[in-house]
């Protein structure tokens, strides 16, 4: 740091500091570290005209985040040597496009239309991604849905349900949600939690999946879970993927209101 000589003018040669009275500082406390979550949830939504749907991945913080990142990165590296299509590092992966045989992976700007074999291989990418996630220690998945509900209403009930679960366990968590940062209704769901019984820390972190590869993993989980409930006839090949890969998760939960 550079000192200006003029800045030192006008100051006394010495400063007398009055000794504090006994107990003058007893109310002060050393600064505390901010609370850190025990778990991180990565969430994505799905649904159709009749049903809203959310799926999620839950990993322990901090080791679980590192483990899932390593596993998903290794999975993406294998895609780069897939003989059926060309995948570039950092490219977008959307489960709904892969299983439908559309999207940039199969339809580059220049080139022939994909063959049926390429479409089948692209759909299998989703299943292979699920298998990669299932091997991550401590990782858990879940999904909820409701017929005739808005995305925001379902999210609010999911927040309340998970907050209650963590309150019962005496743990805390944080949410990372696929979004563009403008979803005020999702933030409102967190802020409605009672301050004295809040175990979901802070607002949801809203990040586009294209910027966070692990959110693309949550997209895979969500779409597989959604098809296990929606059972679209053209997706019959994946109706059992969710429960086959994650049998301990159980079927997606219907959060229907009575």
Helix content: 25-40%
Q: Please identify the structural class as seen in this structure.
A: alpha/beta
User: What Rg is obtained from the alpha carbons, in whole angstroms?
Assistant: 25 Å
Annotation, overall tally of beta strands: 6
β-strand amount: 5-15%
Give the low-pLDDT segments.
Answer: 1-33
Q: Count of helices?
A: 7
Shape: globular
For the biggest β-sheet, the strand order reads 5-4-1-2-3-6
Write down the overall mean pLDDT. Answer: 86
User: Distance between termini?
Assistant: 67 Å
Secondary-structure element pattern, one letter each: EEHHHEHEHEHHE
Largest sheet geometry: 6 strands, mixed
Task: Characterize this entry briefly.
With 258 residues, this protein is α/β, with parallel strands linked by helices. It is 36% helix and 15% strand. The protein has a six-stranded mixed β-sheet, sandwiched between helices.
